[in-house]
């Protein structure tokens, strides 16, 4: 179990408006902690032979997760921080799908066993850009190589602007049982400012289509911190989202990183909410969702009581990975496609980011890996601590590490004393409970042995709020 139990801190309608000024005073740039160590600390030079050696040791009796990355979109959203390319032609996408099939075949040859898939996720980019014949071919190839566990979750990220009845029918027939709709906002001014016109009716029809074909596990992704968002627009967004009755809602903070993603320079800086308004935008939506019966999960997810994510949170088995919060407890994640990141018992592995190089390596008969991160015992221990905090806002170091080992983290606890004095967390011995969502990543940073000032590393992260 990752957590000892469901933490009451996520159930409060609001996590401390009285502490807003204190949180703002401590806010700083820290990682999102979808992994530990985080991806900037992956190392280049990982070869086809290295990856094959890892794959050959994959246990046969453990179910796995499987991720498929589709790095194409028809239109660039200016808030996007993903690895994706814009195309209006089908041919490069069809060609890419052929390479996905070939990568699956390479994996099959490298594996000594055929572990069952417990969770399959298509992400992007926009997976819905795959022509249906190409999607079927990828799915059929995965199914030929790997068995699926009973009740396996098969999920696809959906762009509601190009979701069709044919897609709904095909996805349902292939076993898809969860879809995640990229919504972000419905306000015309906000969406035009990020180059993503998307009326409410388009999203409503797409969700209705999914349900018509029996895909009833519906996720919606929202964003706060987008240009021109106000308290009023966020209230209206909450009204509209609640009419759609999704099972799960993610409320992500927009990460404005124009030094990494040049297209973000097209968003006027003066239109972005300041840090105080960002805090309020999140709180407005959080209160509305919790008042409507959604349970707060982790720092930025909300789910209906019977949703798998809420069940996992209450049962202490909530996990966090590169897709965010998940109920998936698989120890290994195989990932295919350009830039895809996987996790095996030995550590993390990432494919080459650029599609041309991805194709070249597969043409050479090699797995298209480029980076890795071998996990040390210290990495694994710190990862467990951080995952506890990110998932439940609580960690008991004695329970996680053992009392003797927990003593090694005394400097981290002392670093957190300033947050305790500000009322943002409680420390009792070696037990830490964070009392405000926005302070969770700040608490995690105290256990991050790789985090250094930008002046030393050149690595820049987004702020906690």
Overview of the structural elements:
A hairpin with a 2-residue loop joins strand 15 and strand 16 (347-351). The chain has a nine-stranded mixed beta sheet with strand order 10-11-9-8-7-6-5-2-14, with helices on both faces. It has a four-stranded antiparallel beta sheet with strand order 1-17-16-15, with helices on one face. Mean pLDDT is 93; it is low at 1-7, 10-17 and 454-458. Helix content is 37%, strand content 20%. It is of the alpha/beta class and 465 residues long. It starts with 19 loop residues before the first helix and ends in an 8-residue tail after the last helix. Helix 3 (91-110) runs parallel beside helix 4 (132-145) and helix 5 (165-173) runs parallel beside helix 7 (200-212). The protein contains 18 helices and 20 strands. It folds into two domains: 8-34 and 377-457, Arc Repressor Mutant, subunit A (Orthogonal Bundle); 39-374, pyruvate-formate lyase- activating enzyme (Alpha-Beta Horseshoe).
CATH superfamily of the largest domain: tm_1862 like domain
Stretches where pLDDT is under 50 for at least 5 consecutive residues are: 1-7, 10-17, 454-458
What is the tally of helical segments? 18
Number of strands: 20
> What structural class do you assign from the helix and strand content?
alpha/beta
Kindly report the average pLDDT value. 93
Q: Helical proportion?
A: 25-40%
Percentage of residues in DSSP E strands: 15-25%
The CATH class of the largest domain turns out to be Alpha Beta
Shape summary: globular
CATH topology-level fold name of the largest domain = pyruvate-formate lyase- activating enzyme
Strand order of the largest sheet: 10-11-9-8-7-6-5-2-14
Largest sheet: 9 strands, mixed
Identify the CATH architecture of the largest domain.
Alpha-Beta Horseshoe
Distance separating the two termini: 29 Å
Total number of distinct structural domains? 2
């Amino acid at each position: 179990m990752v957590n000892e139990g469901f933490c009451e801190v996520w159930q409060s309608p609001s996590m401390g408006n009285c502490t807003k000024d204190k949180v703002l005073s401590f806010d700083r740039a820290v990682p999102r902690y979808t992994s530990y160590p985080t991806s900037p600390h992956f190392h280049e030079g990982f070869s086809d032979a290295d990856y094959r050696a890892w794959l050959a040791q994959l246990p046969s009796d453990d179910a796995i997760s499987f991720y498929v990355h589709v790095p194409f979109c028809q239109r660039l959203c200016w808030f996007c921080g993903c690895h994706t390319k814009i195309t209006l032609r089908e041919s490069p996408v069809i060609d890419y799908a052929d390479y996905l099939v070939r990568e699956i075949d390479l994996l099959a040859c490298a594996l000594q066993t055929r572990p069952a898939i417990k969770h399959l996720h298509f992400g992007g980019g926009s997976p819905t850009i795959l022509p249906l014949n190409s999607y079927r071919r990828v799915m059929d190839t995965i199914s030929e190589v790997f068995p699926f566990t009973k009740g396996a979750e098969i999920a696809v990220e959906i762009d509601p602007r190009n979701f069709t009845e044919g897609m709904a029918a095909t996805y349902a027939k292939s076993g898809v049982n969860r879809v995640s709709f990229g919504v972000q906002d419905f306000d015309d001014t906000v969406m035009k400012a990020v180059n993503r016109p998307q009326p409410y009716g388009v999203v409503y029809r797409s969700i209705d289509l999914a349900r018509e074909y029996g895909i009833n596990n519906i996720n919606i992704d929202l964003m706060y911190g987008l240009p021109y968002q106000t308290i009023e627009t966020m209230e209206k967004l909450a009204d509209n989202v609640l009419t759609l009755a999704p099972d799960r809602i993610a409320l992500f903070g927009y990460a404005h990183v124009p030094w990494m993603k040049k297209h973000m320079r097209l968003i006027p800086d003066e239109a972005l909410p300041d840090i105080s308004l960002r805090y309020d935008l999140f709180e407005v939506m959080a209160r509305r969702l919790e008042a409507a019966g959604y349970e707060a999960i982790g720092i930025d997810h909300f789910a209906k009581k019977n949703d798998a994510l809420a069940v996992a949170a209450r049962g202490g088995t909530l996990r966090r990975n590169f897709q965010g919060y998940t109920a998936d407890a698989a120890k290994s994640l195989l990932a295919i496609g350009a830039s895809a990141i996987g996790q095996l018992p030995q550590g993390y592995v990432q494919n080459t980011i650029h599609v041309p190089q991805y194709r070249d390596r597969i043409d050479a008969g090699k797995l298209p890996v480029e980076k890795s991160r071998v996990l040390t015992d210290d990495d694994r221990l710190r990862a467990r601590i951080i995952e506890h905090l990110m998932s439940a806002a609580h960690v008991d170091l004695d329970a996680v590490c053992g009392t003797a080992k927990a003593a090694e983290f005394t400097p981290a606890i002392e670093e957190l004393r300033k947050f305790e004095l500000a009322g943002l967390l409680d420390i009792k011995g070696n037990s830490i409970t964070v009392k405000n969502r926005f302070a969770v990543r700040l608490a995690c940073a105290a256990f991050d042995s790789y985090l250094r000032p930008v002046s030393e590393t050149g690595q820049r992260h987004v702020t906690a709020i």
